[in-house]
Amino acid sequence: MSELQTLATFTQAEPVDNGTSVTRIVFSADDLRARTWLKELAATEGFEVRDDAVGNIFIRWIGTDPQLPAVATGSHTDAIPHAGMYDGTVGVLGGLEAMRALKRSGLRPRRSIELVMFTSEEPTRFGIGCLGSRLMSGTLDPVLADAKQDKDEATLAAVRTAAGFNGPLSSVRLEPNHYHAWLELHIEQGPMLEREGIPVGIVTSIAAPAGYRFTITGLGGHAGALLMPDRRDALCAAAELILSVEKHTLATGAIDTVATVGTCDVHPGAVNSVPSRVVLQLDIRDTDPTRRESVMEAIRCDSEKLQQCRKVTITEELVNADAPAQSSPHIVQLLEALCTEQGIPYKKMVSRAYHDSLFMARIAPIAMIFIPCRNGVSHRPDEYAAPDDTTLGVHMLASVLAKLALE
Ligand code: GLV
Ligand code: MN
Ligand code: MN
Q1: Are 250 and 298 in contact (CB under 8 A)?
Q2: For a tag site, which of 3, 9, 169, 378 has the least CB within 10 Å?
């Protein structure tokens, strides 16, 4: 818990949150400081440390049979603007603590146990989430990845090189049999566990996320002089498009369909200038990708109508459209057996948030352990996970890693 507190100090200052929030954008000074600190913690413990070309960090406890595929765990330490201090970090520092505790207990793992800290699980800087795990699982083309740009038009290639991560991104990819198993500990980020008074969630599947960028182009002009009947206001069209997203998402009637327009860039962005161009980023997810696509079709239909009646042009750019992931029945069964043995109440559940495990599932058998977070709050400064729940999550992680490492 004290390491979580220390990690939370590596943050860009956000005065509006009275110092309670964490903002740690990939390859920012704070992200780099956090990486150095994490690697020092691992080295102190005698674990082997390396990073790859995109900055994924690997912390390995060598097993007695080092040729065997390792058992792995991990998560991310980057944080969206104005976030809390538990999202991702619990899986990284919890993973490290699980490994240290197993070492203290005298375990001699047959398979190596490896902790992974992924680069940019959050999409804040380059517009796409799970950069590190996408590249590791061969889900994202390395050339396209290197060409991705941040808001200052700096490419990933340039930014990672400046941060000291060199070499071709193609080298980040791991073979499907590289890991024997993958297990990630994470806060639930939703209200189910707390509401039902259950301390542990065992994730059986992860919902399918997609991301799109819409650019709406209209006609700018003087806010006083451009007459209302002559306007082709890009922001007014964007407002209608956002409401269309909400309408069609609600219309599925399914609790698992969710969509969010979380950014809106208005050009030229002056109070006395009619908006000429707006860029929206849409995040849409569902456990059923076909239903997700049907919502997109309905939004496209509205977009066509908007272009005609508001005389604007709307272009749509696909950022990512991913499939859902299923957990490994074997790892789920190990987790359930542990809960039953130790009398720990648990609930099998879907993860509506995405995680690096979504992509690790493409190259390894995976599962996730969820712990409750207060009021189901996440991606907010008041995100909170209780020490007792965190401890239990780490205990479960350690126990099952140990079992897997002896297989
Ligand atoms: C991860 O942060 C997500 O947006 O699900
Ligand atoms: Mn997050
Ligand atoms: Mn996370």
Answers
A1: no
A2: 9
